[in-house]
Amino acid sequence: MSAHRRSSGRGLLGWLFAALLAVGCAPAHLTVNIKSPADSNEGRPLYMVIREVDPKQYLADTYVDVAAKVVTPDKTVLQTVVIYPGTTKQVRVKKPPELPVAIAFLFTTPDGAWQTLLDVPLPEKVELELLENRIRTGANAPPSPQPALQPAAPAAPEKAAK
């Protein structure tokens, strides 16, 4: 084998190794897409807090506890963002290695779900829609499309009267 062939083969292998290493080491991110209608939070801007959280702590945290993290973020806070009514926003954060992620919206007068928990394994993307004073959840989300109707199974024969 000629020297030229050996060196070009090594270059290709080196390039492939570097590409695989770069992909394997790239931090995983979570993309959060937020749709905020004009009437969300009574038309006023609000904060969104994205944080890593232990599930037990998530259940114990109050609205006041989470709101305090806007002014004094601790090591759990991944990002705080102002959300403006009538806009859409996309936020990208680095996924924590092991813990779930809580996403809280600090409505002026929350009425229902104001935060949500994303359990591990975390998705790559989440879509959230705000309502006037809460997050749209399964209970207040529009109904999912109905599956195509299946032909009905034949009815069982009725017993003859005696």
Automatic annotation (TrEMBL):
Query: This protein's superkingdom?
Result: Bacteria
- Name the residue ranges with Low complexity bias: 149-162
Name all Type VI lipoprotein IgE-like C-terminal domain ranges.
47-130
Residue ranges of the region described as Disordered: 137-162
Q: Which Pfam families match?
A: IglE_N
The cross-references to InterPro entries, in alphabetical order and at most eight, read: IgE-like_C (IPR054378)
Stored PROSITE patterns: PROKAR_LIPOPROTEIN
Q: What is this protein called?
A: Type VI lipoprotein IgE-like C-terminal domain-containing protein
- Native organism is Hyalangium rubrum
Question: What are the top taxonomic ranks of the organism?
Answer: Bacteria, Pseudomonadati, Myxococcota, Myxococcia, Myxococcales
